[in-house]
Every structure is written in structure tokens, then in C-alpha cells.
Amino acid sequence: MAKTTHPLAAARSARGLTGVDLARGVRAAAQRRGLRSGVDKQRVWKWEVEGVKPDAASQAYIAEALGLPADAVDPQTWPHWLPGATAGVVELGPASTVPALREAFQATMDHTRRRIVVSAVSSTALLALAGTWAQPGSTAPAHDEPLDDASLADGDEIDRLEQATALFTSQATENRMRTISVLEALLQSVTDLLDERRHGARGMARLHALAARLASEVGWHRFDVSRHEEAARYWIGGLHSTHELGDIDAGAGLLSDLAYQASWRNRPKTAADLLRRALSRARHPAAQSLLQLRLARALAVLGDRQGTLRALAAADRLLSMPAADPVPSWCSWHSTADLAVDSGQALLDLGETRRAHQLMREGQAELPASRVKTLGVFTTYRARSYLELGEPERAAAAATEALDLALRIGAPRCVTLVRELTPRFAKFPNAQGVPELLARAAA
Questions:
Q1: In which element (H, E) is residue 413 found?
Q2: Are 258 and 280 in contact (CB under 8 A)?
């Protein structure tokens, strides 16, 4: 088992504090609020050594005792909001892609070996990375250069990698779970070639484009099976690759993936902040439309009605806006069906149940048959809207349909969505289809 220093111990030691000093500071912070805290050095030891998680109030007191601002505290991500806990998140810069991707591979190895490591990516680290990316002029594409004979030979190797990547990333959803090991091997090969740096500028650009695409694919696989720290690492590696490549819209897409994950993990503020940074530089109207739609979803959860409606209106307007350039591949699937369903989900969070249900129903009807996993997610959303309308029979039918579909195609994320919805059926134990749904979801 790998031995690691807990971020709290590192932050405390960096300030010259003992466990007794920190406990005293925590008690003083509580007292300043007219409260009492029973924290002592034994409690600090349990936090640092046994991995006991302090409650939200204690985390606020810890921040104050360490001299940190109150807004640094993110109780859900303990201990990764602490200073020094972001170690391993590579800063954007020249030749930063390979180290960032190596971090992603290492996170996967750590998971496979069941090692206990501090490898989570905090909201603070993500926002700092996104802030660097969003700075004007921060992305500079490499200048093209003539190819010599060695570069021409390397081109054949890159051709084969591109062909294999196109083949395995175009597999049907049902086959994706079985081909992930091939995608990982392709990404490893691309990373090794980038590390060798024996290609001309055009060859390196092609490799960076491959790295970004493969990192996105592998990240989504990790996300689907709830290995979130690994997903974030791969998407960060992809962001580095787009940064070196100079592909701003592709970088905005990877920030959007990280924001989607933040929303999924109930961190809507982080999601909204990431999306605003992505929107500050995204160029293509279709990319901007999807970013605005995801921003609307995050703002709706935060209860920002006006902000949600503005973002939805922008997403609608931008989706139909003509553009001279092709739609970026990461959002080429974005359509009026997605706009309708996600708009409905945002309105549902704002309490506009009937309009939300209508939009979800219309969007699902427009969805192409090829997008079967998205259909499962949308059907779960529709089940939730039926519950909001007080129609448990229809909700149970929709949730059962989504569960059957998710199990058939091997989509763990969709299964999780249905299972998270089932507690809301508890008040309708005798409604048609509910007992069967609850039994299936619990199996």
C-alpha cells in the first residue's frame, strides 16, 4: 500500500502548526461564532491518519485556523480543497500534454492496483486550470515546417493510428464497453510518440488531435462507470493537447465535459464557472449553443431563474446560427432534440413542470435511433417529469423502459440515474408498475 501524506497534515506543517495548535485554532474559530467545538489532537489525528471526514462546520473552522479564505472551503471535495492537495495537476504550457496524460495513466494504474492515493482533482484546481486556458492569447498553435524523409515515414505510422482511432471511436454504443482497452492502448501509443518529439510540426499536430480525441473517449468511459477522478484526469490531458494544438473550440469542449461531470456530482457552481470560462473563448455557434445549454442546467439547479432563461434563449439562437466552419466533432451531435430535452430539465428544476414535460416529450421524439444511450438518459428525465406531475404509473413505465435499455446496451450511468430516481416512488407503493420497477432496480 502506498503511503501518502494527508493534505491536512501537509497544510498544517507548512504553517508550522502541530496537531495541538490546529485543534486550538479550530476551537477558537468556533468560539468566535459563539459556538463550542470539542476538537482535540486526537480528533486531528483521526482526520489525518484514519481518514475521518470532518463535517462542513469543522472544515470551515479548519480553513480559518489555517488562514484560508472562507470561499476556499468545498466540503464535498474534502480534503482536496486544501492547499497542496492539487499536486499532480499539470499546468498548461509548452510540452505539457505528455505529463498530463501520464498522470491520467497513473491514476488508472493506482485504481487497478487498489492503492490508496490522494489523486482527486479539486474544484479549485479545475478552475485555476480553466482560468489559465481562458486567458486571451494563451493558446499558440505550432508553426508548420517542411517534412524531411523521417517525418514522411512517421506519417505512415500516424496514418495507421488515425485509421484505428476512427474505427474504434465509431463503434455502436453496445460495443464501446468492449473496446475501451483498445482505445487506451491507442492513447498510450500516441502519448509515447508525442514524448519522442521526432516528428515535424504537422505530424505533432496530428498526434495532438488524436490524443485529445482519445482522451475524451477514455474519459467518458471512466465517467460512465463512476471512476470520476480518472475521467477528470483524462479530460485534463485532452485539454492540454488541444492547448498545444491551438484548437480553442476543442478545448472548450473538454472544459464542457468537466463541467458536465461537476453538475452530475452535484457541484453546479463549479460547473457554471467552468462553462463561463469555456464560453469566453469558444468560437463556433454550435459549440457556444451547447455550452449555454449546459450553463442553463447548472444555473437552474442554483435557482438562478433569469440566468437560466437567458442561457436557454442564447442556446436556441446560437444553434440555428449559420457558420462558415464545420461544426466541431465534439458537439456535432447537438441538435434541437437535445435543446428541447435539456431545456425541459432546466425548467423542471425551476418548477415549471408541465412545460418541462412537453419539451422533454418533443425532444425525445426527435432523437435519432442511433443515439441509444442518450435515449436512456432522456427517458429517465421523462420519468422524473411524470413524477413531478403526480403520474406514478407513467413514471414507472418510463423508468422501467430506461432501465431495460441501459442494461441491454451496458450503460452503467443510465442505470445509476434510474436507481437514484427510485426513492421518489416510495410514496406510490401500489401504483401500477412501481413494485416491479423497485424490484428490478434493486437487483
A1: helix 412-421
A2: no
d(C-alpha 426, C-alpha 146), whole Å:
68
**What does 315-384 look like in DSSP terms, one character per residue?**
HHHHHT---SSPPPGGGTT--HHHHHHHHHHHHHHTT-HHHHHHHHHHHHHHS-TT-HHHHHHHHHHHHH
Q: Cell for 438? A: 423497485
The tens place of each residue's pLDDT in the chain, 443 residues long, gives 334 467 788 788 878 889 999 999 999 999 999 999 999 999 999 998 877 889 999 999 999 999 888 877 888 767 767 776 555 578 888 888 999 999 888 877 756 555 444 456 777 778 878 888 988 766 655 444 444 444 444 568 899 999 999 998 887 666 666 788 899 999 999 999 999 888 888 999 999 999 999 999 999 999 988 889 899 999 999 999 999 999 999 999 999 999 999 999 999 999 999 999 999 999 999 999 999 999 999 999 999 999 999 999 999 999 999 999 999 999 999 999 999 999 999 999 999 999 999 999 999 999 888 888 889 999 999 999 999 999 999 999 999 999 999 888 888 888 999 999 999 998 899 999 999 999 988 88
How many Cβ atoms from other residues are within 10 Å of residue 332's Cβ?
Answer: 10
Torsion (CA) 132, 138, 141, 142 in degrees, nearest 10: -90
Contacts of 123 (CB under 8 A, 6+ apart): 74, 77, 81, 262, 267, 270
The Cβ of residue 115 has, within 10 Å, a number of other Cβ atoms equal to: 13
Q: What are phi and psi of 247, to 5 degrees?
A: -95, 95
Q: Are 359 and 340 in contact (CB under 8 A)?
A: yes
Residue 206's H or E segment, with its range, is helix 201-224
Largest CA distance in the chain: 75
User: Is the separation of the CB atoms in 355 and 347 below 8 Å?
Assistant: yes
Q: Which three cell numbers stand for residue 218?
A: 477514455
- Distance of CA 443 to CAs 403, 415, 425, Å? 11, 11, 16
The model carries a pTM of 0.76
Cell of 80: 482536496
Dihedral sign of CA atoms 113, 114, 115, 119 in order = positive
CA pseudo-torsion sign 91, 155, 181, 260? positive
